[in-house]
Amino acid sequence: MAADPKDTTVTEESTESAAEVEAVASAPTTPAQKLSAEALIKAFETEQMKTDLPEIYVGDTVRVGVRISEGNKERVQPYEGVVISKRHGGMNQTITVRRIFQGIGVERVFMLHSPQVANVKVERRGKVRRAKLFYLRERVGKATRVKQRFDR
Q1: Which of 4, 5, 8, 22 has the fewest CB atoms within 10 Å distance of its CB?
Q2: Residue-by-residue pLDDT tens, the chain, 152 positions
Q3: C-alpha to C-alpha distances, 48 to 2, 44, 61, 92, nearest whole angstrom
Q4: Taking the complete model, does pTM exceed 0.85, yes or no?
Q5: Max alpha carbon distance in the chain (Å)?
Q6: CA triplet 40, 42, 46: central angle to 5 degrees?
């Protein structure tokens, strides 16, 4: 049986789930109220996700502000490097940032929606033809440079 192109069951389901998430987030919960676990998890995740993140692509040079707590003080330390991979989506979205520090390649994986990530700023866009830039690990010096992209 062929699917009807005017079939709107998918959009109806998505609007129902969005309405359910908003109802869960806005309504006070009582022990007598039965809510699905999936709706509770979705509501919690949408509440925790950051909204001020820029569009990040593989090959971009980014500056990630990392929160560091020393004793009772907290500061934000920038970590700048090239995004060599992006993984997952939604709440679990991560980027791997590679930089050269004192002649040694250092890679860090950042969960974008983590409280430890204070901010992310795209310094320059990179022009690449791969989804993962793991080949940069074998390159040294000027060979690690990524061409700049001006159209995004």
Answers
A1: 5
A2: 555 555 544 444 444 555 555 655 555 555 556 789 999 999 999 999 999 999 999 999 999 999 999 999 999 999 999 999 999 999 999 999 999 999 999 999 999 999 999 999 999 999 999 999 999 999 999 999 999 999 87
A3: 40, 6, 26, 11
A4: no
A5: 65
A6: 120
